[in-house]
């Protein structure tokens, strides 16, 4: 049997994406929790360029970057398809993953974590960008159609993490009034039995985000 290990952090949406993909395929793996405030020699050895989680080790060979890892998992192991079979739909799925990761995540995080004018500017930017996601999910159960696919797995920050952050920080950005389609997807997503079993507990996540926002906190913080 192939040896599969995953170096991750329990609270990281990027690590959780990979775990979901592995479980969706029924792949047995060893999970190695990483302390991101004191990075291990193992992480630095296998991801010396970015020094970030997640890192997948398959028979000792490392693969970094969550979106690349998920595609590798989909191509390597049998089981339910994560990416669409149709070339155009596959290209569009990759487009939306890239859009969410590179365009949406940073201003959404800054809208909740940055003070004053910077926070307001990020909130306006995020609000405009989320309109595109709102339109894309319209009249769909999941981004992948009837089943959870690549974009659904990769939009987990929007689907779960962000709701905890905006509630904790008292920010009203992603609401049912402004984004009814997206919020309907979120409700179906986090209540889907497979997804629910692979999300970190809300109370533990709240404590993590509280720590990030404390004055003088010197541990790991998400990079934006």
Automatic annotation (TrEMBL):
Pfam family, one: GST_C
Catalytic reaction equation(s): RX + glutathione = an S-substituted glutathione + a halide anion + H(+)
CDD domains: GST_C_Tau (cd03185), GST_N_Tau (cd03058)
Keyword tags: Transferase
Assigned protein family: Belongs to the GST superfamily. HSP26 family.
GST N-terminal domain ranges (all copies): 2-81
Family matches, as InterPro entries: Glutathione-S-Trfase_C-like, Glutathione-S-Trfase_C_sf, Glutathione_S-Trfase, Glutathione_S-Trfase_N, GST_C, GST_C_Tau, Omega/Tau-like, Thioredoxin-like_sf
Species, as recorded: Penstemon smallii
Protein name listed in UniProt: Probable glutathione S-transferase
Signal peptide (residue range): none
Domain GST C-terminal: from-to ranges: 86-208
EC nos: 2.5.1.18
One MF annotation (Gene Ontology) recorded for this entry: glutathione transferase activity
């Amino acid at each position: 049997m192939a040896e599969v290990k995953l170096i991750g952090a329990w609270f990281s949406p990027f690590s959780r994406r990979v775990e979901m993909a592995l479980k969706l395929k029924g792949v047995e793996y060893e999970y190695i929790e990483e302390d991101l405030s004191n990075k291990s020699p193992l992480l630095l050895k296998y991801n010396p360029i970015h020094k970030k989680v997640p890192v997948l080790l398959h028979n000792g060979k490392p693969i970094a970057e969550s979106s690349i890892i998920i595609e590798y998992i989909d191509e390597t192991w049998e089981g339910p398809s994560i990416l669409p079979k149709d070339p155009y739909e596959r290209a569009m799925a990759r487009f939306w993953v890239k859009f969410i990761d590179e365009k949406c995540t940073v201003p959404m995080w800054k809208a909740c974590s940055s003070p004053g004018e910077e926070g307001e500017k990020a909130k306006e930017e995020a609000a405009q960008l989320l309109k595109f996601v709102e339109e894309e999910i319209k009249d769909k159960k999941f981004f992948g159609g009837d089943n959870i696919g690549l974009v659904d797995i990769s939009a987990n920050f929007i689907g779960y993490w962000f709701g905890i952050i905006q509630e904790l920080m008292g920010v009203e950005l992603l609401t049912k009034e402004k984004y009814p389609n997206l919020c309907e997807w979120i409700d179906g997503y986090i209540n889907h039995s497979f997804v629910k079993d692979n999300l970190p507990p809300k109370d533990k996540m709240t404590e993590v985000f509280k720590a990030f926002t404390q004055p003088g906190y010197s541990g790991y913080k998400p990079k934006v």
